[in-house]
Amino acid sequence: MKQVGEKKLPQIVLYCFITFSALISIFPFYWMFVMGSNTTSDVNKIPPVVLPGANFIKNAQIVFERIDFFGAIWNSLLISTAVTVSVLFFSSLAGFAFAKLEFKGRDFMFIFLLATMMIPPQLSLIPNFMLISKLGWVDDVKAVIVPGMVSAFGVFWMRQYISSAVPYELIEASRIDGCSNFRTYWNIVIPAVRPGLATLGIVTFMGTWNDFLWPLVVLKDQASHTIQIALRTLNDVYFTDYSMILAGTFLATIPILIVFIIFNRQFIAGITDGAVKN
């Protein structure tokens, strides 16, 4: 009985820790909903309110009246989806080349690629804007999609994942069967690295969805605003309705939650791959 008790105690501690961590992770979303369902005067109370109010629908209606909420959601969804699909394709293709193909200058090019990750993105803000202006893409979603079509982190992630998930013997077998490099990539590599693709896809989608600075610079027209820029316009000069803004912010987080719920199993598999060995 003593041994059984000794085994149960660590499990209880583990479950308590997991429950506590889950509550901490969920609390910001709950708090956002609480603030968005009350009034601004309730938000400023000390101690603050901790229970949801009855004003969420009213605050959401104000958001819909002041901004083109669904239009901004569509722009964000279009941009995030296009960037994510592009990053997954080009990053996995480049990662396959760096991981499994032999060509001159491969290691140098990969090191140079890693070095670009050390450059702050703010340094490229002005040159990129000058280029976008000359192309005539200002106030066009292409100005956000095209510069984000591939990422150095995505190439690095897929290169490391393909190196560990796809053995050389499998590549050699496909070549013996007469497969070209692209067919090997499409029919052999892609099915084997789906968890890694799901992980990179979620990270890319969330990063693009939450991006604020670059869309703010190149998307001036209200019709092309993403949801992050549209929410910014809810701020007034003399008064800020925090409950209304938080109601809109809560609604804007729902698409990200849906994407994570759909791909969470692949995301967890991609993160934990290699952590447990047979």
UniProtKB/TrEMBL annotation:
Example of a GO biological process term: transmembrane transport
Organism: Lederbergia galactosidilytica
Cross-referenced InterPro entries: MetI-like, MetI-like_sf
PROSITE patterns with a match to the protein in the record: ABC_TM1
GO annotations of cellular component type: plasma membrane
Places the protein is found: Cell membrane
Entry's family note: Belongs to the binding-protein-dependent transport system permease family.
Designated name of the protein: Sugar ABC transporter permease
Domain of life assignment: Bacteria
Gene3D superfamilies (UniProt xref): MetI-like
Record field: transmembrane: 12-33, 73-98, 110-132, 144-163, 184-209, 242-263
Keyword Transferase annotated: no
Domain ABC transmembrane type-1: 73-263
Membrane topology: Multi-pass membrane protein
Keywords linked to the UniProt accession: Cell membrane, Membrane, Transmembrane, Transmembrane helix, Transport
Any one Pfam family match given in the protein's UniProt record, by short name: BPD_transp_1
